[in-house]
Design brief:
A hairpin with a 3-residue loop joins strand 22 and strand 23. The chain has a six-stranded mixed beta sheet with strand order 5-4-1-6-8-7, with helices on both faces. The chain has three domains: about 210 residues, HUPs (Rossmann fold, 3-Layer(aba) Sandwich); about 90 residues, Chorismate Mutase Domain, subunit A (Up-down Bundle), CATH 1.20.59.20; about 150 residues, 3-Layer(bba) Sandwich (Phenylalanyl-tRNA Synthetase, Chain B, domain 3), CATH 3.50.40.10. With about 500 residues, it is of the alpha+beta class. It is built from 15 helices and 24 strands. Helix 9 packs across helix 11.
Length: about 500
């Protein structure tokens, strides 16, 4: 007989809460293009680059953001009121932000009104995107910010950048996507969108400043493009197609430059990029320029801009030695042996972690890892000098910081200190004025920095080379891994040795 199941023992599972879909922010100014964006987002499939292809966006995901730049007294407020009214009619969440553009320009030291307004618009959009992603519990980069750029905007931007003298990346103009910013109307002309709104009997706001040709974009829109259209009435469509070709070719060059960057890279850390100068010199000129520009942008202080003369100045270091040049953004480019070093001068070089090392014992010294000190008792009748030589490999034959061996007593380390666990040496970075009498050199001394240069230690690495001194700091014992001072070198009758090596 089948046992009766008590359903009370198995209460029904709670329905899982459906994961909230990432927000889609519509940037709506009230002009014809942005109003068309709002309408199309509600009723037409769109590809918003989320992997789902072209489909209708769920209305629950839509949020409207309007920026009031306060540049047109009265009219700016009317635009905001109109967009708010549209959102009420379509039952869409409305967000607005008023920004005093002239005041922000003064505080941020920006001179171009158009650039400032654009920067502040995007800043507000990014802030809203972060707030919505935090509230919804999904990653920020899944939020989509839709702008109403059209084919006309793309062509206008192309002319503006061509007039200013941009390279191929700039001449690409406006792309369909940049990170989570999407331009779904980029292949519509402005007139096509206005016809669409007229058919739907939906009005829009006119920004009178768009007629003011003292603004660069308005000048291109009303003076340059109409003149060009007298030669080619289909100018917008033709150039839009050409810009797609340029964009594809630029993408290919960009990917090639990424590979070349990695191929030429030797070192990379925050604020510094080091290339193999020979590999940079062998690159095609167009690729080399892109590699250098990427490195300059990577290490520079925020806000720095590099034009072609800066890139060419840096690139000269690939086949010039000695070489050093200062560039905007606190950037210095210099040649160190076969390395092309691009670094931010405000970033501190790696320094030795100063302090003491117990003998025997270990110490973390920074960039070169852990320094290990061990004591070697010389067997009776053994030749201590020969033993020390057998434990050391000359730096020139093995430039990877070989073990350094020296006489413990000459370095101030006594048997009594060893027995009591009090034996130690001092570690710090090279100091101005430091000198050493290198082992094997008869008489005289050399500056430590000269010894490091002869060992082909790059300038950027020298502050991280540990200098070992006696416990009281009065005598330089060795440049760890490179040279021992002859005043502490092992002789035939040395009875106790200290070996310093890196792990």
């Amino acid at each position: 007989m089948r046992k009766q199941i008590n359903k009370e023992q198995f209460p029904p599972k709670k329905a899982r809460r459906k994961k909230q879909e990432p927000a889609v922010i519509l940037m709506v100014s009230g002009g014809s293009d942005s109003v068309a964006l709002l309408c199309k987002a509600l009723e037409e499939p769109m590809d918003i680059y989320d992997g789902a292809g072209s489909k209708l966006i769920d209305k629950k995901r839509l949020y409207v953001l309007h920026i009031n730049h306060l540049l047109r007294p009265g009219a700016s407020d009317e635009d905001e009121a109109y967009v708010r009214k549209l959102c009420d009619e379509f039952k869409l969440p409305f967000h607005s932000k008023s920004i005093n553009v002239p005041q922000e320009m003064e505080e941020r030291n920006i001179t171009n009104t158009e650039s400032a307004a654009r920067e502040l618009r995007y800043e507000a959009a990014f802030n809203l995107a972060h707030a919505l992603s935090d509230r919804g519990g999904y990653p920020y980069d899944e939020v989509r910010i839709l702008t109403a750029h059209t084919a006309d905007d793309r062509v206008e931007t192309f002319f503006m950048r061509a007039i200013e003298g941009a390279g191929i990346t700039g001449l690409v103009s406006i792309r369909p996507r940049r990170d989570n910013i999407i331009r779904p109307l980029l292949y519509y002309t402005r007139e096509e969108l206005r016809d669409y709104l007229r058919q739907k009997q939906i009005s829009w706001c006119e920004d009178k400043t768009n007629e003011d040709t003292t603004y660069f974009r308005a000048f291109v829109r009303h003076e340059i493009i109409p003149l060009a259209k007298t030669r080619n009435p289909k100018l917008i469509e033709t150039l839009s197609h050409s810009l797609d070709v340029v964009m594809d070719e630029n993408e290919f060059i960009k990917n090639t430059a990424k590979d070349a960057y990695l191929f030429s890279l030797k070192e990379r850390e925050k604020g510094m990029v080091v290339f193999d100068s020979g590999k940079i010199a062998r690159l095609d000129s167009a690729i080399a320029k892109r590699v250098i520009r990427e490195a300059l942008n990577e290490v520079s202080s925020m806000g720095a801009r590099f034009d072609s003369k800066h890139v060419l100045a840096a690139l000269r270091g690939a086949d010039t030695r000695p070489f050093s040049v200062s560039l905007p953004g606190e950037v210095e480019v210099r040649r160190e042996f076969d390395d092309l070093v691009i670094k931010n001068t405000t970033k501190e070089l790696n320094q030795v972690m100063s302090g003491t090392i117990k003998v025997p014992g270990t110490k973390d010294v920074g960039a070169f890892g852990t320094l290990i000190a061990r004591v070697i008792e010389v067997p009776p009748h053994a030749d201590a000098a020969f033993l020390a030589a057998s434990l050391s490999i000359p730096y020139e034959q093995n430039p990877r910081f070989h073990p350094i061996v020296f006489d413990a007593d000459k370095a101030g380390i006594t048997e009594e200190q060893l027995q009591e666990g009090l034996a130690e040496l001092r570690i710090d970075a090279p100091q101005d004025g430091d000198s050493i009498e290198p082992q094997g050199m008869q008489g005289g001394s050399k500056k430590v920095f000269d010894v490091l240069a002869e060992a082909k230690i790059a300038l950027r690495k020298r502050p991280s080379i540990p200098i070992v001194r006696t416990a009281d700091g009065s005598q330089l014992v060795c440049i760890a891994g490179i040279r021992v001072d002859r005043n502490v070198e092992c002789g035939e009758n040395s009875s106790r040795l200290v070996e310093l090596s890196f792990k």
